[in-house]
Amino acid sequence: xxxxNEILLESQSPNRMRxxxxxxxxxxxxxxxxxxxxxxxxxxxxVYELVEEVTLQPSVGTDSALGRQIWIFSALKAGxxxxxxxxxxxxxxxxxxxxxxxxxxx
Length: 106
Known about the structure:
- By secondary structure, this protein is mainly β.
- 0% of the residues lie in helices and 56% in strands.
- The protein is built from no helices and eight strands.
- A hairpin with an 8-residue loop joins β7 and β8.
- The mean pLDDT is 88.
């Protein structure tokens, strides 16, 4: 995997991606012990696709319960889209937090 064409997506501002194979990552901390889960919701715009979702658990034997949830996206065509991330407590059907990431591909 080449790391020269990758960017980190941010929820505070619009993110620009190139359609020529550039990958974009969005990373959120998770509390592995508490069982909270982030869900990724696509807008079905066709501007991007979710390439991979990775969950990194905290190292065994550490005091931290924080892991990372990572989503990797690729731009498919020029245009604008958005992806929403929702945080759910264990066993809940209602999100307690939402983040929206805006993607402008070209």
